[in-house]
Write a structure and sequence with these properties.
The chain has 198 residues and is mainly alpha-helical. It has 9 helices and no strands.
Length: 198
């Protein structure tokens, strides 16, 4: 393995393991959009799950590259609307934690399913993530807040897709897929750690 590949892999590992030091922004002070945009960036569970969606989409390739993340964002918004309408959703936090483990494992084993099935699988978990966002809206305006967290989520998905594609090109072929799968496995382990440590 060349020195460049080792350095790139180390940089990827550090970036993947970093968690931003942010707090939820006050919508009165910072605006509803920024409050929504910062929200997914605050929770490690949200970050890991959304990046894992991108990693799995990169492994699936083809139309899944954009349809799987789009399904997550769309269904997440539906969960947000349900929360705003006052619809209860049991097992919210356990399912969100499970999403990190499950989606990480889907990437780790590079489960090859039709794009529609992958969309449905991530969509199930996305509904819970969206409901959680709706339950934590505070004083923010719903439309701007939803736009903010939807865009932030899309960017996290894009980061996962880009990481998967970058690693695939850097290492090439099966080696690249293996490194991406390892990143998925690390995501799943992160979910287990959150469940135990939380």
């Amino acid at each position: 393995m060349t020195r460049t590949r080792i350095s790139s892999l180390a940089a990827f590992a550090f970036i993947a393991s970093a968690s931003p030091a942010l707090a939820h922004l006050d919508p009165v002070e910072h605006g509803s959009f920024m409050a929504g945009f910062s929200h997914p960036l605050f929770g490690t569970d949200h970050i890991l799950a959304m990046v894992a969606v991108g990693l799995w989409a990169a492994l699936l390739s083809g139309r899944a590259l954009w349809l799987v993340p789009l399904a997550f964002v769309g269904t997440m918004l539906a969960g947000f609307v349900a929360a705003m309408a006052g619809a209860p959703l049991p097992f919210l936090e356990p399912v969100i934690l499970a999403s990190v483990v499950v989606i990480g494992l889907l990437a780790a084993i590079a489960l090859n399913v039709p794009t529609g099935a992958a969309m449905a699988m991530v969509g199930f978990f996305a509904f819970f993530h969206g409901h959680a966002h709706g339950g934590e809206i505070g004083e923010a305006g719903a439309y701007a807040y939803a736009a903010g967290f939807a865009i932030a989520t899309g960017l996290l998905h894009a980061a996962g897709v880009a990481a998967g594609l970058f690693v695939g090109r850097l290492f090439g072929g099966d080696a690249g897929r293996t490194v991406t799968r390892i990143a998925g496995a690390l995501t799943a382990l992160g979910g287990v750690w959150l469940a135990i440590g939380g």
